[in-house]
Amino acid sequence: LFFSSRSSVKLVAPLGSLVSRQKHTLPDLPYDYAALEPHINAEIMQLHHSKHHAAYVNNLNVAEEKYKEALAKGDVTTQVSLQPALKFNGGGHINHTIFWTNLSPNGGGEPKGELMEAIKRDFGSFANFKEKLTAVSVGVQGSGWGWLGYNKEQGRLQIAACANQDPLQGTTGLIPLLGIDVWEHAYYLQYKNVRPDYLKAIWNVINWENVSSRYATCKK
Fold it and tell me: Which locations, inside or outside the cell, does it occupy (predicted)?
């Protein structure tokens, strides 16, 4: 299968309802595979998007189909047994759909406006925030994600780590603003086992406009 690496189509909110007949599809990247070089190389981006993310989408569609069949039969045992596959592949699809938009060849630097004010309010400074999110991401054992999320009840920003492909909102209630993928497939071809080097580099391609837009939306 060939997946285009360019598209003017914006990535939309993932995961329809289980009753929908529409299958999930791999979203196009809003930039070329090589666009994030030298920070993330083209080979990583191509494999990450067209192989890893595509696998989550395909496996999610299979799991949902089986789940719909079990639902129709009233087979609760099978419904329960499918939960881990739905969580893992559904989370993988949700997380990566956010991740691609969180990155940009024109990224880096610091956020502006309301998001920057909120970061200063909740973390003291941008430098503090960056240090904390990096430390949490470095500290993920095995595979997982580091996140900046919004706690709607408390009206504040929060940093969290999730294991494997656990989706942030579905497992913690925090609304995802910025996700950093620390699975080895996200960096190993370029940075080998030195995760801190990858995390240092990724700040150069963070799309703060996208993160700010997510923040503005979830505050409404």
Answer: Mitochondrion matrix
| CB-neighbour burial class of residue 76 (10 A; exposed 0-12, middle 13-18, buried 19+) | exposed
Domain assignment present for residue 211? The answer is yes
Number of domains in the chain: 2
Q: Domain boundary at 76, 102, 128, which?
A: 102
- pLDDT tops 80 at residue 57: yes
Is 166 annotated as belonging to a binding site?
no
User: How does residue 2 score in pLDDT terms, banded at 50, 70 and 90?
Assistant: very low
Q: Residues 85-105: pLDDT tens digits?
A: 999 999 999 999 999 999 999
Residue 201 lies in a domain: yes
Which one, of 45, 3, 8, 9, lies nearest residue 26 by Cα? Answer: 3
Q: Which residues contact 112 (CB under 8 A, 6 or more apart)?
A: 208, 212
Q: Is residue 93 annotated as involved in ligand binding? A: no
Q: Any binding-site annotation on 49?
A: no
Q: Give the chain's length.
A: 220
52 annotated to bind ligand: no
| Confidence at residue 219, expressed as pLDDT on a 0 to 100 scale | 87
State the pLDDT at residue 22.
85
165 and 206 share a domain? yes
φ/ψ region of 151 (left if φ > 0, alpha if ψ in -120 to 50, else beta) reads beta
